[in-house]
From TrEMBL:
Transmembrane segments: none annotated. This protein is involved in the repair of mismatches in DNA. It is possible that it carries out the mismatch recognition step. This protein has a weak ATPase activity. CDD domains: ABC_MutS1 (cd03284). The gene is mutS. SUPFAM superfamilies: DNA repair protein MutS, domain I, DNA repair protein MutS, domain II, DNA repair protein MutS, domain III, P-loop containing nucleoside triphosphate hydrolases. The lineage of its organism: Bacteria, Bacillati, Cyanobacteriota, Cyanophyceae, Nostocales. The keyword Nucleotide-binding applies. GO terms for biological process: mismatch repair. Belongs to the DNA mismatch repair MutS family. One of its GO terms (molecular function) is mismatched DNA binding. This is DNA mismatch repair protein MutS. The keyword ATP-binding applies. It holds the Pfam family MutS_I.
Length: 873
């Protein structure tokens, strides 16, 4: 039985009524020789799309042709393949394979490139030699055009054992390689969500090992805690076993124990890292990937920025349309290099918990804020540095071209200038740039002296290496030049010899050099001319001497190209040998770039250095929302202050011990009309805290902040259609997560709770949640709500206070002042808003009547108060 594509199908060829679309269904013995090789190759990579080079095209057959045609909207046609009939076929021009493969990989496919590895002309009477030269999977990309400059492309590997897990990840384009281990599946999910890996390796016993599950695709073999949003590669268990993984790591990093890498006693972390390495060996073929030394980290060393918070605080993209513009990263990114831009993203998603680390970054920003010439000179130089991390990665894996090496050399040549600039600086971040190993400078100079000013992209076609680099190369070139000169003179000489003034010497790809004579003059052609081609108006001739020179030029040119290629490859290997040194410096450059950018931002946006203190205080004077502020005209944003969790210590009057006196609440109930600015204020506090913990200055006149272990957010109501959960259930799940994980050192931002259910249920839940946060957990919390009844809590609990966003009421309009002030709003303006929106007068009138009745008879607050006192012993 053969599957077939009929001509009436949208992509099917008109001239092929049926063709085979499954390579497993053909009788191989009846295939042509090339197709036998194709099917053999395909069998080795059954789960990837195989792009097979045939002449000027990369072609796909059978099922891959259908995928290619559908995913790239290409024409699906067919090809006869010996006795079995026609098979489906689709293809792309060979020079455009990268562009097309990028689309496939972005869509979650693995792509295998099987290229011709010899000149078709050499394969006389036999099949051209073809080999798999590259396997592309979403997590193993290196090609410049396939990667986003401003973000890392992570390949991750997970090993799960009960509640415990190991996670390793690497960006093979930059060489980062890290591993960790943890014991709560929630943490694993959060860590994966932070990394947003392009591909995740999972060891399984699945029958279809090697297959790649595209985002959203389900498999019984995938552990439940893994978020469905990623690509998962199902791998065999063996390379993830403790023994195999360990010995692979020892071998790769040439160490005797894993102690130095920090993971000797973390078996799951080791297993994940070993499995990841094996995958790289498997997919990268002979090109070894220059990974940095494996680093072990602990997720609890950093603030967890969970998925909810990342989304609600719009850290890397906006909630509305997922765009970068309007996100916190957009507002903060003043970096000058791609490396810096990537580093800033990493910092934002991994804020620090360690005050010392935060202060070290702040010190550097301060130094750069205060020293304007230094900051400007640094930024000026940084702008001239290309993506050294990725350029080095391409050099190390043998994929850099001559342009890459020139860019690398240009960038390396800026490093000594950077070193000079930071000579007298105090910050360790800046000092890290002070020493550029002399070998690196020399390497940069060597590349510049070897490779021509603007080299071609192709490295096998010559034109790369300068004159004077290699005497043999120069001697060969001189010979070719002599022959070329002889040919160039030939036209003049032959015109003189034959007396034919219209005689021309030309060249074309089929015949090589020739002498062309117009038809009218053919009787004057000398006897040593041999006719080669007849055209309408001219005859074309060759001479034995011309052919001899031509043959010499062509062979010499091939030799020259080969020599240039070899010189280039040797140079590239020299770069690869310095990969670690270059990357260490690149990391330092990236960090300085981030800090310079943050300093620039601080200066131009008027940010202040927050004083980082022990304890639980959050004290911000005239804080601003960093993104909204930048989106409004200058001076339009109304600053607001915040005070939470502050305690004063002083000596007790009658005892030796210290007493603590509360100076600010733990929980703020924030009320105010719609659109007054509650959400904005809430987010502003979260963003200021987050910025402070990456070491940045903050948008405020003054700030004194303690470190938060985590920022929790519950903002807005979003239906989670993907999981089929209602608005209310999503809200309850998120709230439950907060109540179960928040501590007194957390910052909790709640924007409305309980709106998705009946008013009294909603109010009851909101009340109980606020009370639990204030009384039981003592988390610093801002709770924005339209339930004014919650203001009663302040009279019941000492650590709760009421704030409101004020408005000015005029006869026929409300003016939003956006000012947050102490006190609860006594009015919700909901009916007013309805009137302004154009609800009929009678409806408004009636609403006011109903409202009056409800207010008169409501006993909710009083009831809760008496319940409270009767409950307590
Ligand atoms: N401090 C401020 N200064 C200037 N404009 C502000 C300020 N705060 C908020 N705004 C503007 O007011 C608009 C409404 O703010 P926001 O969404 O925070 O209101 P809200 O009180 O949360 O409304 P709702 O209760 O309907 O959710 C925002 O789009 C913002 O542009």
């Amino acid at each position: 039985m053969t599957a077939s594509y009929s001509a009436s199908q949208p992509n099917a060829s008109n001239n092929a009524n049926t063709f085979i679309t499954d390579h497993r269904l053909v009788d191989r013995s009846k295939l042509t020789q090339m197709f036998q090789h194709y099917v053999e190759t395909k069998e080795k990579y059954p789960h990837a799309v195989l792009l097979y080079r045939v002449g000027d095209f990369f072609e796909c057959y059978f099922e891959d042709a259908v995928i290619l045609a559908q995913e790239l909207e290409l024409y699906l046609t067919s090809k006869p393949v010996g006795e079995v009939g026609r098979v489906s076929m689709s293809g792309v021009p060979h020079h455009a394979w990268e562009r097309h493969a990028t689309v496939l990989v972005e869509k979650g496919y693995a792509v295998v490139i099987c290229d011709q590895v010899e000149d078709a002309a050499e394969a006389v009477g036999r099949l051209v030699r073809r080999e798999v030269t590259r396997i592309l999977t979403p997590g193993t990309l290196l090609e410049e055009g396939m990667l986003k400059a401003s973000r890392n492309n992570y390949l991750a590997a997970v090993v799960i054992a009960g509640e415990h897990w190991g996670l390793a990840y690497a960006d093979i384009s930059t060489g980062e390689f890290l591993t960790t281990q943890g014991s709560s599946s929630e943490h694993l999910t959060q860590e994966l969500m932070r990394l947003q890996p392009a591909e995740v390796l999972v060891p399984t016993n699945a029958p279809d090992l090697g297959s790649l599950l595209r985002p959203g695709e389900k498999s019984d073999h995938l552990p439940e805690c893994l978020p469905p949003a990623f690509c998962y590669a199902l791998r065999s268990q063996l390379p993830f076993s403790a023994g195999e993984a360990r010995s692979r790591l020892l071998q790769k990093f040439k160490v005797r124990s894993l102690e130095g890498l920090g993971c000797e006693h973390l078996p799951l972390a080791v297993r994940a890292a070993g499995g990841l390495l094996e995958y790289l060996e498997d997919t990268q073929k002979e090109n070894s990937i220059p990974l940095q030394l494996l680093r072990t980290y602990t997720i609890t060393d950093y603030m967890i920025v969970d998925h909810q918070t990342r989304r609600n605080l719009e850290i890397t993209q906006t909630v509305r349309d997922g765009s970068f513009h309007g996100s916190l990263l957009w507002a903060l990114d003043r970096t000058s290099t791609a490396m810096g831009s990537r580093a800033l993203r990493r910092w934002l998603l991994q804020p620090l918990l360690d005050i010392k680390g935060i202060r070290a970054r702040q010190d550097t920003i301060q130094e750069l804020v205060e020293n304007t010439p230094l900051r400007q000179d640094l930024r000026q130089l940084l702008r001239q540095i290309y993506d050294l991390e990725r350029l080095t990665g391409r050099a190390g894996s043998g994929r850099a071209n001559a342009k890459d090496l020139v860019a690398l050399a240009d960038s390396v040549s800026k490093l000594p200038e950077l070193a000079l600039l930071v000579m007298d600086t105090a910050s360790p971040f800046l000092k890290a740039l002070q020493k550029v190993p002399p070998g690196l400078e020399e390497l940069g100079q060597k590349i510049r002296s070897y490779i021509v000013e603007s080299p071609p992209i192709h490295i096998k076609e010559g034109g790369l290496i300068r004159q004077g680099v290699n005497p043999q190369l120069d001697a060969r070139r001189a010979l070719v030049e002599e022959d070329q000169k002889w040919i160039a003179n030939l036209e003049v000489e032959e015109r003189a010899r034959t007396g034919i003034q219209t005689l021309k010497v030309g060249f074309n790809k089929t015949f090589g050099y020739y002498i062309s004579i117009s038809r009218a003059k053919v009787d004057q052609v000398p006897s040593n001319y041999i006719r080669k081609q007849t055209l309408t108006n001219e005859e074309r001739y060759i001479t034995p001497e011309l052919k001899e020179r031509e043959a010499r030029i062509l062979t010499a040119r091939d030799d020259l190209n080969q020599m240039e290629y070899e010189i280039f490859v040797a140079l590239r290997e020299e770069v690869a040998a310095q990969a670690e040194v270059i990357r260490n410096l690149s990391r330092a450059v990236a960090a300085v770039d981030v800090l310079c950018g943050l300093a620039e931002l601080a200066v131009y946006q008027g940010y202040c250095r927050p004083e980082m203190v022990e304890g639980r205080e959050i004290y911000v004077v005239d804080g601003r929302h960093p993104v909204v502020e930048q989106s409004l005209p200058m001076g339009f944003f109304v600053p607001n202050s915040t005070q939470l969790g502050g305690m004063n210590r002083h000596d007790a009057k009658d005892a030796k011990e210290e007493e603590e006196e509360r100076v600010s609440p733990d929980l703020i109930i924030l009320t105010g009309p719609n659109a007054s600015g509650k959400s904005c204020y809430l987010r502003q506090v979260g963003l200021i805290q987050l910025m402070a913990q990456i070491g940045s200055f903050v948008p405020a006149r003054y700030a004194k902040l303690s470190v938060c272990d985590r920022i929790f957010t519950r903002v807005g109501a979003v239906d989670d259609l993907a999981t089929g959960q209602s608005t209310f259930m999503v809200e309850m799940n998120e709230t439950a997560n907060i109540l179960n994980h928040a501590t007194s050192r957390s910052l909790v931002l709640l924007d409305e709770i309980g709106r998705g259910t009946a008013t009294f249920d909603g109010l009851a839940i909101a009340w109980a949640v606020a009370e639990y946060l204030a009384a039981e957990i003592g988390a610093r919390t801002i709770f924005a709500t339209h339930y004014h009844e919650l203001n009663e809590l302040a009279s019941l609990l000492p650590n709760v206070a009421n704030y409101q966003v004020t408005v000015k009421e005029l006869p026929d309009q409300i003016i939003f002042l956006h000012q947050v002030q102490p006190g609860g709003a006594d009015k919700s303006y909901g009916i007013e808003a309805g009137r302004l929106a154009g609800l009929p007068g009678v409806v408004i009138q009636r609403a006011k009547q109903v409202m009056g009745q409800i207010e008169k008879h409501s006993k909710i607050a009083i009831g809760l108060q008496s319940l409270e006192s009767s409950d307590r012993p």
